[in-house]
Amino acid sequence: MDLSALRELNADRRARRAAVLVTDLDDGSSRLLHENDTVGGELADAVRQVFRTGRSDSVEADGKKLFLNVHLPSPRLVVIGAVHISQALAPMAKVAGFPVEVIDPRTAFATAERFPDIALDAEWPQDVLARRPLDSYTALAAVTHDPKIDDFALKAALDAGCFYVGALGSRKTHAKRVERLLALGASADEIGRIHAPIGIDIGAASPAEIAVAVLAQIIRAFRTRGLEAKDAAA
């Protein structure tokens, strides 16, 4: 790898941008690609695959033998609400490899005793997210049921293109949420990305079961990034 590519790759890592270094195995030449770059031919599918899986691979594309060395930011989970579901979800997500942060301004809920070994912010989401912005490699789960806390974070997640956005509540509750988010400037298409009711449908009843359903939905969303756009274009 030449120094310019290395510098660019290090900048991508600091900025939490995904990149893949494409090296021609015959002549040793290489180039750096990002997720939104236009790639044609057989290479396009190969690059899309490694971005989605996070696994580097050797491929043959467009008559060339190539090595695709992919570098993905670590996916993280931001949970809005230090509630019972969060108490179950946070340790599960850590085991699955997602760094977790719980945000809740209600100091009676956001305590180290209830969330041992979990990054915890007993502040308003708008204050925390101003310091640590969301990005496309972040999943956000809003579970307070309180619009004063959830709505700003949901709008911020849509603006940032988070790979997963989920919100607790019934369909009736979500219909009111849609009206509020529209008033905040979110588009109908953006709001349509919100998983509400949150979690895959496994008939979950307890907080721990709901946490399992939410984590499964987050993992599925992460591992299928980009497939929706590809299917729509087919």
UniProtKB/TrEMBL annotation:
Pfam families: XdhC_C. Signal peptide: none annotated. InterPro entries: MoCofactor_Util/Proc (IPR052698), XdhC_Rossmann_dom (IPR027051). It comes from the Bacteria. Transmembrane segments: none annotated. Residues 77-218 form the XdhC Rossmann domain. PANTHER family: ALDEHYDE OXIDOREDUCTASE MOLYBDENUM COFACTOR ASSEMBLY PROTEIN (PTHR30388), MOLYBDENUM COFACTOR INSERTION CHAPERONE PAOD (PTHR30388:SF4). This is XdhC family protein.
